[in-house]
Amino acid sequence: MENECVRITLYESPLDYEKDENREIQMSFRKETGIDLLAHGLEKEVTILKDEDLSIEIFSGSFPHGGIKLIKYYFGNSKNLTLKSLASEVRIVELDMNGNELWSEVCRINK
Fold it and tell me: pTM for the full model?
């Protein structure tokens, strides 16, 4: 996609948003990404801190493998997305300006 946009498809047809299983997917997505915290922060024009306990962190800049976006996904022992504070591993991905993956790595988190 253009203009630094990312499309996320939670289920096949947007017209099915009221189905129980799709409502569960929506709520899970909102919880895992911390989207409500972000939205409320933007409404109040509050800066969102990078050290919030989220499941996914997205950074912009210039990164070692040529990427302009760096995304960290936090996973628990069951390999499901989890909060950063509960994670046992992190997948780090660098993306180019078109959203193509340039590099990725999975690292264990020692606590």
Answer: 0.57
Is the CB of residue 83 less than 8 Å from the CB of residue 55?
yes
**73 contacts 43 by C-beta, under 8 angstroms:** no
- CA 20, CA 59: separation in Å to the nearest integer? 33
Residue 56: is it exposed, middle or buried by C-beta count within 10 angstroms (0-12/13-18/19+)?
middle
- The strand pairing partners of 90, in sequence order, are 74, 107
Residue boundaries of the structural domains of the chain: 14-108
pLDDT > 70? residue 39: no
* Distant-in-sequence, close-in-space partners of 25: CB < 8 Å, separation ≥ 6: 10, 11
**CB-CB contact of 43 with 50 (8 Å):** no
